[in-house]
Amino acid sequence: MKVEKAGFKAATRTALEIQVQQSRREDIDLQIGNVTETIEVAASAISLQTENATLGTVIDNKRIVEMPLNGRNYLQLVSLAPNVSYGFPSAGHAGSRQGGIRADQSISIGGQRAQFNRFTLDGIENTDPNFNTYISQPSIDAIQEFKVQSGVYPAEFGRAASQINVLTKGGGNEYHATLFEFLRNEKFDAKNQAFTANRPPKDPFKWNQFGFTLTGPVVIPKLFNGKNKLFFMANYEWFRQRRAQQGVYNLPSDAMRAGNFAGVNSVFDPLTRAPGANGVVAAVPFPNNAIPSNRFHPTSVKLLEFYPSANVAGAGLRNNRVQALGRPINRDQFTVR
What we know:
The chain is mainly β.
């Protein structure tokens, strides 16, 4: 910051750091002298915020990127701020069908309920009014810093008793690019506690997040040079998760697949349907409750080849098949500023 006035020496203040949602006051004394003379002073950190009564903690980019985050979710760091609890069981204000993965964020600031938080992104409302959680969650490589605010703050944050204010990265006069990858699989993860004996040859769980961030000035050759004027930030993140979930199913027995329904309710032959003496239509059960093979429809026989069989011995007709099903999740996101 440079201050000039006729009859005084120019004053320059360097190393000024303005954090997200910060009101900073700098008092500069101009000395009498020629305007061509300059006094340069390096700014120091503010020891006490006196411009307003807002209470808050800033989590900077260094901690966001370098601290271990399982899943690259910056909200795991909100507990670094005092008076904040994170990760407790959800009270059900947004179940899996109400907000999706956003419902997993349980944050209590100042002892209030998790659904009373408010989120902003670059000064824009980022709170879902339906499920009381965030709308967009940027990649941690796209975030410059975020601030957990509580107490008394300006009227622009007058909706809730707490505020999580996120600021994305901005560009500069130099181009900078970063590549990142977060990977979990059988090569890097410890053995799952569910595998008490032999581990499967192929681990059913894989988690991979990778992408890039690019910042710099906007330059269009021969048309526009944005240095010192216009900057950009672009971030893209790919998310790939492969996991298996064990399912338990009720399937017909091998005897039923062959047409033998002995031991269950009677199966009636539809070709014997006829009105009785009392006028009620009735049918005769198949002998031994077994349908003859010559009565099987060819289409049903073919479809039965694709129908799985029971694989749990002695289970009867309930919970007689156990099978691991793949649950792939593919999700991509981009952030441009």
